[in-house]
């Protein structure tokens, strides 16, 4: 049997073990065995317990802070390269450090470009990710990038809600392209929030461009961090006469007082994927798994077939 026909091996970084198990199950293989040795000072060393020589290897791990999560991905990529894996795909459901995609002020790093360089240097021959914070980050890589869209899993969920008078909303100007893509599929109207920030995570003013009166509003964004923008937008829309406000956010970072903001807000529901494990449960948060989508695209990569049918936007 040629090496291209050998079954691929799927491994998980510690932070994404639960998601990786779902992906492996959906793919139809067992998750590979990795042992992580830890030193008393915090240094750690992952090791594959089985041979990967000549195989296609998928290493699954979101790179949200702390930096240990990114470091573990890098060490596992390097280990696979040195163990003679034939193809090494870094499956990064949430690509952390992506908000640093340009120099937006003097004397700062372009963190997303640095991380892309590190991942390639470590040994990745392909990158698979979902809903990058900025599409152009794909261009930071010299290797093939499969950039998946969470709309593939969220839109069927929205359809099942059977809502009439839907309006899709973007919480800021930067997300308008995503909002228009959702609205095109749902044949709905679009509104956009215009916000001004005093500093990171602090909004000074917010205004609404468009009408939400007597509409069921669905806010769409690539991530939710502190929840300040989203909950402020939801409260504003209810004041303007919306019937209900839901939010769809691919990556549930949910740091700081995010859970408190969500519970106190007029948001009816927050729909997220499992790219990042939730810190705690909430009656307002609904998780839609991205595992079947990643498993399907991984199958197609293994079989060298087109993945274009997976793109709803």
UniProtKB/TrEMBL annotation:
Gene3D superfamilies, A to Z: 3.40.50.2020
Alphabetically sorted, this entry's keywords are:
ATP-binding, Kinase, Magnesium, Metal-binding, Nucleotide biosynthesis, Nucleotide-binding, Transferase
Quote the SUPFAM superfamilies the UniProt record gives: PRTase-like
Q: Does the keyword Kinase apply?
A: yes
User: SMART domains from the entry?
Assistant: Pribosyltran_N
Q: How would you classify this enzyme at the top EC level?
A: transferase
In the Enzyme Commission scheme, what number(s) does this protein have? 2.7.6.1
The protein in question is named: ribose-phosphate diphosphokinase
């Amino acid at each position: 049997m040629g090496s291209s026909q050998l079954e691929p091996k799927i491994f998980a970084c510690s932070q994404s073990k639960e998601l990786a198990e779902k992906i492996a199950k959906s793919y139809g293989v067992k998750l590979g065995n990795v042992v992580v040795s830890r030193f008393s000072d915090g240094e750690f060393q992952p090791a594959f317990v089985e041979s990967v020589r000549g195989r296609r290897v998928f290493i699954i791990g979101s790179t949200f802070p702390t930096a240990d999560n990114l470091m573990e991905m890098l060490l596992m990529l390097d280990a696979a390269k040195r163990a003679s894996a034939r193809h090494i795909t870094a499956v990064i459901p949430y690509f952390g450090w992506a908000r640093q995609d340009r120099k937006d002020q003097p004397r700062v790093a372009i963190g997303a470009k640095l991380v892309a360089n590190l991942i390639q240097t470590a040994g990745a021959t392909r990158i698979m990710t979902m809903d990058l914070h900025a599409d152009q980050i794909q261009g930071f890589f010299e290797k093939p990038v499969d950039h998946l869209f969470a709309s593939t899993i969220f839109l069927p969920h929205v359809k099942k809600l059977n809502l009439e008078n839907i309006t899709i909303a973007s919480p800021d100007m930067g997300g308008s392209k995503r909002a228009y893509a959702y609205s095109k599929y749902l044949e709905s109207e679009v509104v956009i929030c215009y916000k001004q920030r005093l500093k990171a995570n602090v909004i000074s003013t917010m205004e609404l461009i468009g009408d939400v009166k007597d509409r069921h509003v669905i806010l769409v964004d690539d991530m939710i961090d502190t929840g300040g923008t989203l909950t402020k937008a939801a409260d504003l829309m209810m004041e303007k006469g919306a019937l209900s406000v839901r939010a769809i956010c691919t990556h549930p970072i949910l740091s700081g007082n995010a859970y408190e903001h969500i519970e106190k807000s007029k948001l009816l529901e927050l729909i997220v994927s499992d790219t990042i494990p939730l810190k705690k449960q909430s009656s307002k948060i609904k998780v839609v798994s991205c595992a079947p989508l990643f498993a399907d695209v991984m199958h197609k990569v293994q079989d060298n077939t087109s993945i274009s049918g997976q793109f709803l936007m």
